[in-house]
Design a protein that fits this description.
The protein folds into 3 domains: 353 residues, Alpha-Beta Barrel (TIM Barrel), CATH 3.20.20.300; 213 residues, Rossmann fold (3-Layer(aba) Sandwich); 112 residues, Immunoglobulin-like. A 6-stranded mixed beta sheet has the order 11-16-15-14-12-13, sandwiched between helices. Strands 4-3-2-1-10 form a 5-stranded parallel beta sheet. The radius of gyration is 27 Å and the shape is globular. It contains 22 helices and 24 strands. Strand 14, helix 21 and strand 15 form a beta-alpha-beta unit. 32% of the residues lie in helices and 17% in strands. Bound molecules: beta-D-glucopyranose (2 copies). The site of one beta-D-glucopyranose (BGC) has 9 residues, from loops. One beta-D-glucopyranose (BGC) binds next to loops.
């Protein structure tokens, strides 16, 4: 208290305006009154013991503060809080998927984070605030009653960074209302292999678009005072087998050309933290790669924030990868390679003890500890954690979060649904009198949500978030239509006798038979991470049978797919009249699907990934190196509208000096009967190049809204970096360069050549 009074006096002398008496209630100085952020950081760091600095480098799962076992979701337990927050001095707490306070409402979250902050403030020597981290990857998705936005893959098909930025801002507001300041998002991994259980968490397969979206997310989040995380650095999404955390073998050329740019974009937007890839690249677990974590991330990309490990991954260097003979050695390797904070979900004391020993033994330098602790403290200062009140108002949390952002969620869902086939049946005519709605997805909330919603593997049956199902959406939107429903399959049909399943299918057929048209909603039950890895991309045989039976009974059958990845459609696509990919559309998914089916919204989304015809084509992406075969069912960029567009003219300079602005003009006309959005997509590739270029690369895009008959010139600029290649022999170590020569450019069916000198 004396120190506090002295500081108060000092800051009065310096006539500095901000004096927090609240800060003084704890024993320690928080640098309040020092004018400059760096000074505040150094001031605090200078007062910390080695153990306190190491504590800052530790992040523990919140369940370790609760109940009696590591995964108890009980009330906070003071014994454990003391061990983790005081004795180990943990600087950060996270909620791993689903780790939440009982009740899970916004007010429960607020009370929980309040209690943790208060405990740390009152019981630790310096009262350093905790930075609390969550995976709010599609809204504040662990909170019951929060509005859930579509998952990233669907959102990326909107091609709209502006929309993504608004969603990030809304998410940040909800997070802050519950006392949470750190979001483990956005995912910057490129979509590469739909067998991978995290395909839906990506922003598609193109580095430019994924980078623009990541940048928008970082901006939207951080402008509200919540830290973003570019994850998972780097090369996580292209394991050889397609399965989570399996070895990846990626050339430096591929890393530079495809995988690094979205991270570079997030860093350019000022992302405050980066999470490390759990897997291995080229035989090295990324958590021990100084080359990736220091040489590339820090020295080349210029990242200055906090690097956090992924879940238990430092221990896994010993237990799974066997690159370290003990956990202690693993800690030394990871910290020395560049990991600043370790997500050690459960064993707080063990981690801090081992890292202290490593410093005493000289295997990790104090300078390295200072560097990591400094970055973490800086993050906390930047987030304002030392300045404002350390708690939030629980009732205000309910008021802010419950039911908020529904209109934005509806807009997001509309813009993330791709129409892939339509022989003219959609939109349904206003004359339609009866509609059969069948399939396991028709009346399901969990299927609209996917994983990372309420719980890690999706919402538990007894804790469903509020949402509009597709059935409800159709009933509300088309009150004049007789909407008849049958589920068409029992839950878990594979566990039931065949006759039972058949009876349910027959009931659906009966319903479909009597209606003018039928909508079959099929898809995937929620999953996350490795639990979502799949050896096949086929729909299960029950859902396939259901589609076939309904299509045979009703010639006007439309299929809606609710899924986190492209599933093979070869078995049914010719038998149905229209096909809609709804992705994982969240709270307002049902409204959006209904609006599209009935033409209240003209579909505007375009694929941001390639839709395969068969499993054997994988991995399949449009921007693979030249000579790669590309014969997808639906290509990258594809998507139908209820109107049609014609690309009439393309204008660009024939010759360009390197570095001059590369601008082109496109004349686009709406040749159909309805207003609608088109996404102008410009692709380019060098005609000749000394090393392989991508067969095509998206170099610019622009969304335009045109009335029927309207035509408009759009001007687009191509960032030069998009034409860069990595020259040199197979090592791929050289810097990206734009080479002089001839380039071919394509917009729709129009093509042009230009010359770079
Ligand atoms: C995932 C991360 C996530 C973390 C915390 C890990 O298993 O790979 O994406 O942020 O858990 O939940
Ligand atoms: C946690 C997740 C975490 C995963 C890592 C789960 O038990 O809930 O948050 O990402 O483990 O494997």
């Amino acid at each position: 208290m004396r120190a506090c009074l002295r500081r108060l006096a000092l800051s009065l002398l310096a006539t500095l305006p901000v004096i927090s008496l609240e800060g003084c209630a704890s024993e320690g100085p928080r640098g309040v009154g020092l004018p400059d952020l760096e000074e505040r950081v150094e001031n605090l760091l200078g007062r910390m013991t080695l153990a306190e600095k190491i504590g800052q480098m530790l992040q523990v799962n919140v369940t370790r503060l609760m109940g009696h076992t590591p995964w108890d979701r009980g009330p906070l337990n003071e014994v454990w809080m003391r061990r983790v927050l005081v004795e180990a001095g943990a600087g950060s707490i996270l909620s791993g998927g689903g780790a939440a306070p009982p009740g899970r409402r916004p007010q429960d979250w607020a009370r929980m984070t309040n209690a943790i902050q208060e405990f740390a403030r009152k019981n630790t020597r310096l009262g350093i605030p905790i930075v609390y981290g969550v995976d709010a990857v599609h809204g504040h998705n662990n909170v019951l009653g929060a509005t859930i936005f579509p998952h990233n893959l669907g959102l990326s098909t909107s091609w709209s960074p502006a929309l993504f930025e608004r969603i990030a801002a809304a998410t940040a507001q909800d997070m802050k209302a519950t006392g949470v300041h750190w979001n483990f998002a956005p995912v910057c991994d490129l979509a590469r292999d739909p067998r991978w259980g995290r395909f839906y968490e990506t922003l598609g397969e193109d580095p430019l678009l994924a980078g623009d979206l990541a940048m928008a997310f970082v901006r939207g989040l951080q402008a509200q005072g919540v830290a973003a995380t570019a994850k998972h650095f780097v090369g996580y999404s292209q394991p050889l087998t397609g399965f989570d955390r399996q070895p990846a073998d990626l050339s430096l050329r591929s890393l530079q050309l495809y995988h690094l740019p979205p991270f570079a974009a997030a860093i350019q937007a000022g992302v405050k933290t980066v999470m490390v890839n759990s897997g291995s690249v080229n035989g090295v677990p990324v958590h021990v790669s100084s080359y990736l974590l220091t040489e590339i991330l820090r020295n080349q990309l210029g990242f200055t924030g906090v690097v956090v490990s992924d879940w238990e991954d430092v221990r896994r260097l010993h237990t799974v990868y066997g690159v370290a003979a003990s956990y202690k050695e693993a800690i030394a390797l990871a910290i020395n390679a560049g990991v600043d904070m370790v997500m050690e979900p459960f064993h707080a004391e063990e981690f801090t003890r081992l890292l202290r020993e490593l410093v005493w033994e000289g295997r990790v330098s104090e300078a390295r500890i200072d560097e990591a602790a400094r970055r973490i403290l800086r993050l906390k200062f930047e987030l304002g954690l030392f300045d404002g009140p350390s708690t939030v108002d629980p009732l205000q949390a309910d008021a802010q979060v419950l039911g908020a952002h529904r209109e934005l969620a509806r807009q997001a869902a509309r813009e993330s649904i791709v129409l892939l086939k339509n022989d003219g049946i959609l939109p349904f005519s206003s004359e339609l009198k009866s509609l059969a709605v069948v399939g396991p997805g028709a009346d399901s909330v969990p299927m609209l949500m996917g994983g990372w919603t309420i719980d890690w593997q999706g919402p538990p049956a007894q804790e469903l978030p509020p949402a509009v199902t597709i059935l409800a959406g159709l009933r509300t939107l088309a009150p004049g239509v007789d909407v008849r429903h049958a589920r068409g399959l029992p839950p878990r049909p594979e566990l039931l006798p065949e006759e039972f399943v058949r009876r349910e299918i027959d009931r659906a057929v009966e319903v479909a038979h009597g209606a003018e048209a039928a909508v079959v909603v099929v898809g995937e039950e929620p999953y996350a991470e490795g639990m979502g890895d799949r050896e096949t991309l086929k729909l299960d045989r029950y859902q396939l049978e259901l589609i076939q039976a309904v299509a045979a009974a009703n010639p006007n059958t439309v299929v809606v797919l609710v899924a986190g990845r492209p599933l093979l459609v070869e078995a049914f696509i010719e038998k149905v009249r229209a096909f809609l990919m709804a992705h994982l559309p969240g709270t307002e998914g049902g409204t959006a699907v209904a609006e599209i089916l009935f033409g209240h919204y003209n579909p505007s989304a375009r694929l941001t990934y390639s839709w395969p015809r068969s499993l054997g084509q994988l991995p399949l992406f449009y921007n693979a190196f030249r000579t790669a075969r590309y014969e997808p069912r639906y290509p990258f960029g594809y998507g139908l509208s209820y109107t049609t567009f014609a690309y009439e003219r393309l204008e660009l300079p024939e010759k360009l000096g390197l570095g001059e602005p590369l601008k082109l003009r496109v004349l686009l006309r709406n040749t159909g009967q309805r207003a609608g959005w088109e996404v102008i997509q410009v692709y380019a590739h060098p005609v000749f190049s000394p090393v392989l270029a991508p067969r095509e690369a998206l170099v610019a895009y622009h969304r335009v809204y045109l009335e029927p008959g309207e035509q408009r010139w759009a001007e687009l600029e191509i960032p030069w970096a998009r034409l860069a290649l990595i020259p040199g022999d197979i090592l791929g170590l050289e810097e990206p360069q734009v080479l002089p020569g001839k380039y071919r450019l394509r917009v729709g069916a129009l093509q042009a050549l230009f010359h770079v000198e």
